[in-house]
Design brief:
Layout (H helix, E strand, L loop, with lengths): L3 E6 L6 E5 L4 E4 L5 H10 L9 E3 L5 H4 L2 H8 L3 E3 L1 H11 L7 E3 L5 E4 L2 E7 L8 E7 L2 E6 L7 H7 L4 E5 L4 H6 L4 H8 L7 H11 L6 E5 L8 H14 L10 E4 L9 E2 L4
C-alpha cells in the first residue's frame, strides 16, 4: 500500500493532515473545531476511530484548536515534544497520562510499519517541528510555519518523494495589506512564515530527481492566492536555473475549506 495522505485543511484558519499506510493512520495537527475535523474526515471516508494518534507541530491555535476534544473523544495518543506540551497545556484541556506521548525533536518513532521522524524548524513557538514519514523506500515530508529553511531543515526534507511545503504569502501583497506593521514584520521575520519566493528558492535547491510533487500549503487568505503562489514559486525556480516538465514534477494545491484528494506517495 505504501504511504497515502490527504491535507484536510491548510491555512491560517486551521490545519490538519492525515497520513496513513497499510497498518497506521495518523493526523498531523488538529487546528479546527472537533466538529469540523470530523466533517473533513468523513469527506475522505474516515472517522476519528480510524486514527492511531495525533502528531503536533506546535501550539498555535490554528494547529491545536480541536486537539483536546478529538483526542478525548477517540482516546487517541498525542505526540509532541516537552516544550510544546507545556505551551499548549492550558489550551487543550486534560489528556490522560497514557495518551500523553513525548516525542523529542529529532526523534524517530515507529508506529506499525510507518516510521515518523521530527525535525526542528524556525517559528515563533516553543519548539516547533516538521515531520518526515517513511515506509520502506517512500518518504513524505511536512514543513510549514517556518520563517526560513535552515541547512538542517534542507537536509531533513531532501530526497522526499512528496513535500508539503509552506508558501504563505506574496511579499508585496503582505506589505500593502491591512495588518499592522508589527504583525507584518513578524510574518516576514526568520521566525514567521515562508513567502512564495522563498518556497521557490528552496525547491530549486531540493529538486534532485527524487521529489515528484510539492503541495503548497498554509497560504494566507489575505495576502496570497493559489495561482499567484504557483506562478511565483515556478518563476523563482526558473530564475535559479531549475526548469521542469509536468511529467517530472508538479506543484499541487491545498485548501482551507476542503480536503485534497487522497494521494499516494508512490504515484508518478
Amino acid at each position: 500500500m505504501g504511504i497515502s495522505f490527504t491535507v484536510l485543511s491548510s491555512g491560517s484558519t486551521g490545519n490538519a493532515t492525515v497520513v496513513r499506510n497499510e497498518d497506521t493512520t495518523l493526523m498531523i495537527d488538529a487546528g479546527l473545531s472537533a466538529k469540523r475535523i470530523e466533517e473533513l474526515l468523513q469527506e475522505r471516508d474516515l472517522s476519528g476511530r480510524d486514527l492511531d494518534g495525533i502528531l503536533v507541530t506546535h501550539e498555535h491555535s490554528d494547529h491545536i484548536k480541536g486537539l483536546g476534544a478529538v483526542a478525548r473523544k477517540y482516546n487517541l495518543p498525542v505526540y509532541a515534544n516537552e516544550k510544546t506540551w507545556a505551551a499548549m497545556a492550558k489550551s487543550i484541556g486534560t489528556i490522560e497520562d497514557e495518551n500523553r506521548k513525548i516525542m523529542e525533536t529529532g526523534a524517530n518513532l515507529e508506529l506499525g510499519s510507518l516510521r515518523v521522524e521530527s525535525f526542528g524548524i524556525s517559528h515563533d513557538a516553543a519548539e516547533p517541528v516538521g515531520y518526515n514519514f517513511y515506509d520502506e523506500q517512500e518518504k513524505l515530508s511536512v514543513a510549514t510555519d517556518l520563517g526560513y529553511v535552515s541547512d538542517k531543515v534542507k537536509q531533513a526534507i531532501s530526497k522526499s518523494d512528496v513535500l508539503i511545503l509552506e508558501a504563505n504569502h506574496d511579499v508585496e501583497l503582505l506589505r500593502m495589506g491591512r495588518y499592522p506593521w508589527n504583525i507584518k514584520r513578524r510574518i516576514l521575520s526568520d521566525i514567521g512564515h515562508l513567502s512564495n519566493e522563498m518556497a521557490g528558492a528552496i525547491l530549486s535547491e531540493l529538486l534532485n530527481g527524487y521529489t515528484k510533487r510539492t503541495y503548497l500549503a498554509h497560504l494566507s487568505r489575505d495576502h496570497n492566492m493559489m495561482e499567484l503562489a504557483k506562478m511565483t514559486v515556478r518563476g523563482a525556480m526558473e530564475d535559479r536555473g531549475c526548469f521542469y516538465k509536468d511529467n517530472e514534477f508538479r506543484l499541487c494545491e491545498t485548501y482551507y475549506d476542503r480536503p485534497t484528494p487522497w494521494d499516494k506517495v508512490s504515484e508518478p
